[in-house]
Amino acid sequence: MKIIMGLGNPGKDYEQTRHNAGFALVDHLAQKFSLALKFDKKFTASYVKTEIIRHAVAEDLCLIKSTAFMNNSGQSLRAFLAYFYPEILEEDEGNHLIVAHDDLDLELGEFKLQKGKGPKIHNGLASIYQQLGHKNFWHLRLGVDSRNGERSIAPSNYVLMKMLEAEQAKLQEVINKVSDSLFA
User: Which stretch of DSSP H or E encloses residue 84?
Assistant: First the structure.
């Protein structure tokens, strides 16, 4: 079973921003498997739960995007897990949960899948840590830093800026790699 939550902010103003890298991954996976996410107000999230067949083996797959803003992502995830998978709320049961998010500690085009380790500062993850009470889940860290050492823009503003077309293409390349590695 894989539960993949993509972090981002809802609405047109945030589309194609660095902060929505997690949303971009979930959107890609939904398209790859021909799935449609549906909104449910009890979770303040859009999600799909399904079974996929890979290599003649059935696997449960859940894709989730919080429709609350980034800083409240944990509330959506906790409500979803409490309803469908309460066992995952236990610290030692985070093996099935993958949270995909933007990461300014990694260059654009890089990614890391690490258990219990995220960037130094990320408010969406902080919300999840607070709501779950632990960090023991998979962090899919999608690099979004393309500043080439230039640090005149505050990180909180930089991640909310729209990506250039070339940056979007590079992010899509890494999303394709991630998708292939998760579902080989």
Answer: helix 73-84
Element (H or E) spanning 146, and its range? none
In contact, 78 and 130? CB cutoff 8 Å:
no
Residue 91: what pLDDT?
A: 64
The token pair at 137 is 């889940």
Rounded CA gap, 88 and 34, in Å?
Answer: 26
What are the chain's domains?
Answer: 2-182 (3.40.50.1470)
Closest listed residue to residue 167, CA positions, set 156, 157, 159: 159
Instruction: Identify whether 19 is a catalytic site residue.
Output: yes
Q: Which residue has the tokens 């921003």?
A: 17
CA atoms of 19 and 146, how far apart (whole Å)? 13
- Divide the 184 residues of the chain into consecutive groups of 10 and give the mean pLDDT of each group: 95 95 97 96 96 81 94 95 88 81 94 86 91 91 88 88 96 96 86
pLDDT at 94: 63
The model scores a pTM over 0.90 = yes
Judged by phi (left if over 0) then psi (alpha if -120 to 50, else beta), residue 88 lies in: alpha
Catalytic, out of 19, 101, 122, 139: 19
Task: Return the structure tokens found at 6.
Answer: 């993509």
